[in-house]
UniProtKB/TrEMBL annotation:
GO terms for cellular component: cytosol. Belongs to the pseudouridine synthase TruD family. InterPro entries: PsdUridine_synth_cat_dom_sf (IPR020103), PsdUridine_synth_TruD (IPR001656), PsdUridine_synth_TruD_insert (IPR011760), TruD_catalytic (IPR042214), TruD_pseudoU_synthase (IPR050170). GO terms for molecular function: RNA binding; tRNA pseudouridine(13) synthase activity. Coiled coil: none annotated. It comes from Campylobacter portucalensis. The keyword Cytoplasm does not apply. Its EC number is 5.4.99.27. Responsible for synthesis of pseudouridine from uracil-13 in transfer RNAs. Pfam families: TruD (PF01142). This is tRNA pseudouridine synthase D. Gene3D superfamilies: TruD, catalytic domain. The keyword Isomerase applies.
């Protein structure tokens, strides 16, 4: 109750779901048996070089806590370690860590109840943030009867078919959901944070919340374009007749706008959507996707209708954009290697899938269940 009250006080933003079904009953616990994350490296390691690559498995530890343990036992300093991304504390997670090879002998008899070294190799370079292709997830849902199992399957298949809104997950916003507000207060010079990493993280939470608000608005527009008449859409959004016609002509659920910033999917350069007709087909074939704004001075700029909608969400943040570097993030993304199994005897549903780096499995699960997964 205390957490719920705190959330209400700070006014946590809840993004709009893409699918239209009612909430589904299932039990989920983020423990090491029911939530497993395996990091997928960006490239194969060479097997040569001065950097030792550890594939570690951990449970009930943050990435930093795991590095601290490895540092204390190996003698390597925290700054000597490299990693591609941070992994959740809850559940069982694997990831790749780099460290100077000269400390390898000190880990020969390594043993820890919450941390395992699964295998090792070597590489020429230190791992850096972002040096991962994505993550493979396994999630187990419990107390699922046959009716709700069918609903879960339908939702999961729909997401696999059409894609999903690539929202930032709850992890970004803190236990009480106040990270974004603190980030905004830092930019407004109302809050002083000495630690530069914490300061940057809180500001990124502010950028992330704005992104979620913008993406939720785009999901709303996509639903309205699908369900309402051109006359009704014009009354609601004041779009031109030509823009409405172009939106209505798109088969995909998520609609591209004139002037959107697009990116080659699953990776590649950003560019402007200047010929909407050409880009509709490339988006439909999953060759490109829409990229939402992380406000800042280095952000790739949209134009036309896309910019008008961005300005509605980001107008108050533009005042501080020179204090943030900014960027773009995939707004619409897709599952890979999706699989579902239901066991009626145990009343359990097992879900497995892969996501691009930066995407959240908890966002997928909330889209499926249509409720806060930790209520």
């Amino acid at each position: 109750m205390e957490n719920i009250k705190k959330e209400q006080e700070v006014g946590i933003f809840k993004p709009l779901y893409v699918l239209d079904h009612t909430p589904i009953n299932a039990y989920f616990s983020k423990n090491s048996d029911d939530f497993v994350v395996r990091e997928i490296p960006l490239y194969e390691f060479s097997g040569n070089g001065e950097h030792l690559i550890l594939n570690i498995g951990k449970k009930d530890l943050t990435t930093y806590e795991a590095l601290r343990i490895l540092s204390e036992i190996s003698g390597a300093k925290m700054r000597d370690f490299g990693y591609a991304g941070l992994k959740d504390k809850e559940g069982f997670t694997t990831q790749f860590i780099s460290m100077p090879r000269k400390f390898e002998e000190n880990l020969k008899n390594f043993s820890h109840e919450k941390l395992k070294i699964l295998n090792t190799t070597t590489h020429n370079n230190k791992l850096r943030i972002g040096h991962l292709k994505g993550n493979a997830f396994f999630l187990r849902l419990k107390k699922v009867d046959s009716v709700n199992a069918f609903k879960i399957q339908e939702a999961f298949l729909n997401i696999d078919k059409i894609g999903f809104a690539n929202y930032f997950g709850y992890q970004r916003f803190g236990k009480f959901g106040d990270n974004a507000k603190q980030g905004e207060d830092i930019l407004k010079n109302k809050l002083k944070i000495k630690n530069p990493k914490i300061k940057d993280f809180l500001i990124s939470a502010y950028q992330s919340e704005l992104f979620n608000k913008w993406l939720s608005k785009r999901v709303e527009i996509s639903k309205f374009i699908r369900d309402f008449s051109p006359k009704e859409i014009k009354e609601i959004y004041k779009f031109s007749d030509l823009d409405i016609k172009k939106l209505k002509n798109q088969d995909s659920f998520f609609k591209i706008l004139s002037g959107d910033v697009l990116g080659h999917y699953p990776f590649g350069k950003l560019f402007l959507c200047e010929n909407l007709e050409d880009e509709i087909n490339r988006f439909k074939n999953r060759d490109t996707t829409v990229c939402g704004l992380l406000v800042g001075k280095k952000s790739f700029r949209s134009i036309n209708l896309a910019k008008n909608l961005e300005d509605e969400i980001y107008k108050n943040a533009y005042e501080y954009e020179n204090l943030m570097s900014g960027g773009r993030r995939f707004a619409w993304s897709y599952l890979k290697n999706a699989n579902l199994k239901y066991n009626p005897q145990t009343a359990q549903v097992n879900l497995s899938f892969e996501l691009d780096k930066g995407s959240y499995a908890t966002v997928i699960l909330e889209e499926i269940l249509h409720k806060n997964i930790f209520d």
